[in-house]
Amino acid sequence: MISTEILAKYPRGDRGFLIPILQEVQELHGYVSPDAVDEISAFTGVSLGEIFGVASFYAAFRFTKPGKHIVKVCRGTACHVRGSSRILEMVERELKVKAGGTTSDGLFSLERIACFGCCALAPVVVVDKEVHGRMSSTRARRLLTQYGGTGGPEEG
Q1: Fewest C-beta atoms under 10 Å: which of 8, 21, 81, 110?
Q2: CB-based contact 25:40 (threshold 8 Å)
Q3: Does the reported pTM lie above 0.90?
Q4: How far apart are CA 79 and CA 101, in angstroms?
């Protein structure tokens, strides 16, 4: 359910506030649930299809509940050149989830990001909002264990 404090900030029936409402709902809950979409539709008068269309256009919005920790692996040019593809593959193996998914225990969501703009720190992995630079597969594996990941035999 959407917090009444969120909707109280906006005029009922005004389509122009759709994106700010979606942003606040996602900030509060971590995602935009189907129930939230129904409430937003009733409040703004925007159809369900239109809301899903707008929200799915922007990569920032998600429709499924994220894991407790969100792991983002940069795939920008500098990170790619310095081995981020190996890091991403290792994280996928370690967590047993592909980029874009959430682990079955709900502990981690894994995302592949085009670029963080931290090229001097490449390769970069961000966990929640904490930036970790100059990563390797070994360092990334250790990082996962700090957040409750399983961690297996080390590889470089």
Answers
A1: 8
A2: yes
A3: no
A4: 21
